[in-house]
Amino acid sequence: MSTARAVNALADVICRAQKNGRRTPVVEWLLDEVDALRARVAELEQERHTTNNAVAEAHLALAAAAESRPVDEDPIAYALTEPEPDTPGRRAADAIQAMHDPTVIGYNIGVDWLSLTLKPRTLADWQAWLDRLGADLAHVTHRGLLSTAKGSWDGVPVAVQAHGVGALLAAARTATGSGAV
Prior knowledge:
By secondary structure, this protein is α+β, with helices and mostly antiparallel strands. It has helices at 3-19, 25-67, 88-97, 123-132, 165-176; strands at 104-109, 114-118, 141-143, 146-153, 156-163.
């Protein structure tokens, strides 16, 4: 016999017993459980009302304490950082940053100078920066993958470090089959 059939058969027995005015032990047990559950619900409702009242009283006490706080305890807003000073180095950095050139990966800003860090993707990127800064090509140095140059931006001296130029030069030498680029 399946579980559903057994439950239906038990339900039939209980219904017939109730029609005859008799209570079965199962019905007695169910009625006792219903009474116990009703009592527990009443307890929980009372507990909820008590908790709600306690929360309301605590809220009122906190609100009263906040209103009675002296004025000198109010928080004061402080600036966490000083604004950047307007210097030739800052103006040069801002102008370069406004270009949104992905080749530029870092700055070191002085009052009247700028150090610029680049990561050119191509030799044309590197050459474009040398041209922008009016760098003296006779003073450009290459040491391994790092290249350095000096130029200026709007009259502000700029020292440039470019990462990866050595690899770009080596790739160009290999592509042309010559020792010079």
